[in-house]
Design goal:
5-stranded parallel beta sheet; alpha/beta; single chain; Rossmann fold
Length: 383
């Protein structure tokens, strides 16, 4: 039996998400035409918004949890409807009722892990800095140039630890005075907020903010676009403003300032994937491309659906924790696009994208034909 959210709750959501967020929609359907889900199956955000307008949203339906918050639909909306905010608000109702349909049941475990261990992967907080073993990485102290905040996946995931280590090696090579806070850090909270757990997000955010202030942090370097978006755009809700820079921006800065010299060659054909939360949400398109163009021997070919029209990997909106069945993975389509432009290497700068692309790469007839790399892993080879 599907649960219909009470009309009063829907009205409250409408107010919370910007007043006329739902009323502005005049059902033109442009959101549906650009939604990546409609490349792999039928999906209608327009329908969800229409039902919410009349308080008819069923909070147990799987469809409400499909949105990856990629940012493509609000970019196209002629009425300025806050589509992502509206969808997340509906998820907040489901969270308050404790309603999590079977396909997204892992969220319960993720929430418990975030609450108890500060990360979504059920890993020990004390091991958050283990990725630094054998490297020259210090604990951050006040007065250092920059705090490096790797994010949860780079601290714990075996594949993504390589990205954190590459980043540390580059920073050391450039003579950057940086440190990490390791076990003192929490998850930034972006993804759990997008699943509707506002209270848990606020708890994680407040604890991080206190830690940053107590340790004298003013400038934060991040590897994840999701961390970037949260620190840059959402933590100011708590009346704090840290200077935040994404690694792709910082690499461009280090090279231009002459602090990082590219001495080697990378003689491969490369294509670059724009992560949603780096590109569409925050407008960072040029710096990663400029860094790649500076690398001797590298040939950069653009895929279809690049820049503002980049195809989502499928990991945003908390979908990184949810199972997507074979045949419905956006990342499979993206790998095909990379192969289609002759790329030997698909490069990006987001842990969620790398995770999904690595999984999709294994579905290729020749899984060794295309490598998946973070931009730091390539740069590490030429400095």
């Amino acid at each position: 039996m599907e649960t219909v959210a009470p009309l009063k709750e829907i009205i409250d959501v409408i107010k919370d998400s910007g007043g006329d967020a739902f009323k502005l929609c005049y059902q033109c359907g442009l959101c549906d035409t650009v939604c990546p889900w409609n490349r792999v199956r039928a999906f209608s955000m327009r329908k969800i918004i229409r039902e919410a307008t009349f308080g008819l949203t069923e909070i147990e339906i799987e469809e409400m949890w499909r949105c990856t918050t990629c940012g493509n639909c609000p970019r196209q909306c002629p009425r300025g409807v806050e589509i992502i905010e509206a969808g997340v608000s509906l998820r907040r109702i489901a969270t308050e009722y404790g309603v999590f349909p079977a396909p997204v049941s892992p969220i319960r475990g993720v929430s418990a892990s975030l609450l108890g261990k500060g990360n979504p992967l059920s890993e020990d907080r004390e091991k958050r800095a283990d990725w630094t073993e054998g490297l020259s990485v210090e604990t951050f102290s006040e007065g250092m140039e920059i705090l490096y905040f790797p994010g949860c996946y780079l601290c714990y995931d075996p594949r993504l630890k390589k990205v954190a280590r590459a980043t540390a090696n580059i920073l050391n090579k450039a003579g950057v005075d940086f440190g990490i806070l390791g076990p003192k850090e929490n998850c930034c909270g972006e993804s759990i907020r997008k699943t509707g757990d506002e209270e848990l997000f606020k708890r994680l955010a407040r604890e991080n903010i206190k830690t940053f202030i107590d340790n004298g942090v003013s400038k934060i370097l991040v590897s994840s676009p999701h961390c970037y978006h949260t620190f840059q755009n959402e933590y100011p809700e708590f009346r704090v403003n840290f200077k935040v820079v994404h690694i792709s921006q910082y690499l461009f800065e280090l090279i231009n300032e002459g602090r990082l010299e590219l001495t080697g060659e990378y003689g491969k054909i490369v294509t670059y994937h724009d992560p949603c939360y780096l590109g569409r949400h925050n407008g960072i398109y040029d710096e990663p491309r400029e860094v790649l163009k500076m690398i001797p021997g590298l040939e950069l070919n653009e895929m279809a659906d690049s820049l503002e029209e980049s195809l989502c990997c499928g990991g945003g909106g908390g979908r990184i924790w949810m199972e997507t069945v074979k045949g419905e993975r956006f990342s499979d389509l993206r790998i095909e696009q990379a192969v289609g432009v002759g790329a030997e290497v698909l490069v990006t700068s987001c842990p969620y994208c790398i995770t999904h692309f690595e999984e999709s790469r294994l579905s290729l007839d020749d899984s060794e034909a295309t490598e998946i790399k973070d931009i730091t892993e390539i740069l590490q080879q030429v400095i």
